[in-house]
Amino acid sequence: MCRSLRIRCALTAIVAAAASGACVPLDDFMGDVFGRSMRDQASFDPYENTLLPPEGSVPFAAGNYPAGPYEVNVGQPEGSADLPPPFTMDDMTDRPNLLDGLVNPVPPTAESLARGEEVYERFCIVCHGPDGAGTTGYIFDVHPTMAAHPLNGGTALERSDGYIYGMIRVGRVLMPAYGHQIAHYDRWHVVNYVRQLQGLLEEVAESDAAAAGTGEAEGAADESEGRGEGAN
Ligand code: HEC
Is the shortest distance between the CB of 154 and ligand 1 below 6 Å? Predict the structure, then answer.
């Protein structure tokens, strides 16, 4: 009798909640009665794999197209001469020369570093942290045992520019691929920014405008949203 009274009370409360739309204070109560509340539903958790963009999606960095319907958008500007061939995560370990041999076409100008910082803060900071330590990112609070590798120390210091470019494009193990979100030249801007975080950037390259008189710069980053054509 006592039990049926409790169920009646619960049902009355549910009806009242549904009528008023006031779910928030009842989350715990709903959880007790049904085992879950509406707030506890399918959503992406940290480190959960996202789906690749559906065929026909238009990438936000317009002008980039996936190499095939089920392949990651490699984010290449059309008609550029310095494009690396498509490669996979396995190539990162099996064919290291492919990546280590890539030449960073973007000098680390102040403009490049500013763009690199912007993209880093949009995509990388959540796991690697503002200083690249790996223990300063949001992910560390959630998954301390799966902290991102440090970028400002350890093996990352030894990695070639091409390797870091490759990490951004295809990812590695727990780290997701960002090739479909970060276009070709933006990846190189991020590489430059990571070098700055590592303290390995000896000097900031002169920008195109500043170097015009000296003839020292070999080319500068074109900032037009990863569609640069000016870099060589
Ligand atoms: C979801 C979390 C996450 C995000 C976001 C993320 N990373 Fe990572 N990153 C990792 C993890 C985890 C590893 C270690 C991967 C492994 O276990 O092999 C890693 C490894 C790396 C490495 C290799 C370091 C080494 O010593 O070999 C580089 C370079 C790197 N990340 C750069 C980046 C850059 C640049 C971005 C932004 C474009 C980024 N990461 C975004 C989680 C992340």
Answer: yes
